[in-house]
Sequence to fold (174 residues):
Amino acid sequence: KTEKIDAMSVAQSLGNTKANSLLTYFIIITLVFIFISALISYAINVKSLKPIKEVNDKIEELANKEGDLTQRLSINRNDEIGELANNFNALLNSLQHLMGDILQKGKVVSEQTLTLTNSAEEMVQLSDTVTKNVQNAAEISSEQEQGNKRNIESITKIMDSVSEIKDYSSLVSD
Fold:
C-alpha cells in the first residue's frame, strides 16, 4: 500500500508539475498575444487617427489666424475620414473665393472712395471760385451803384444848371 501511495503521490506530483508547466506556458502565450494585440491596436489607431490629426491641425491653424487658404489636405481615402478631408478642402475653396471677393470689393470701394475724395476736392475748389466770383460781382455791383448815384447827382446838377440858365435867359429876354 505504501508503494501504491508513493506511486500515486509521484504520479500526482508529476501531474501537478506538468499542469503547472502547462499553465505557465498558457500564461506566457496569453501575455505574448496580449502584447502583440496591443501593438497591432496601437499601429491601427495611429494609422487611423493620423488623417484626423491632419484635419484637426489644419483647422487649428485656421482658427489661430495663421491659415494659408491655398493649402489643401492630401488624404486619399474612400471612408468617412476621406469624406471629411474632401469637405474640409471644399470649405477652404469657399473661404478662398470669399476672401478673394472681399479683397476685390475692398479694392473697388477704395477706388470709389478715392474718386469721391477727388470729386469733393474739386467741388470745394469750384465752391471757392463761385464764392470769389459772387464777391467780385457784389463789389462790381456796389461800384456800379456808387457810379449810378454819382451819375444821378451829376444829372441833377446839370438839370438844376439848365433850369437856372432858363430862368436867367427868361429874365434877360424880358
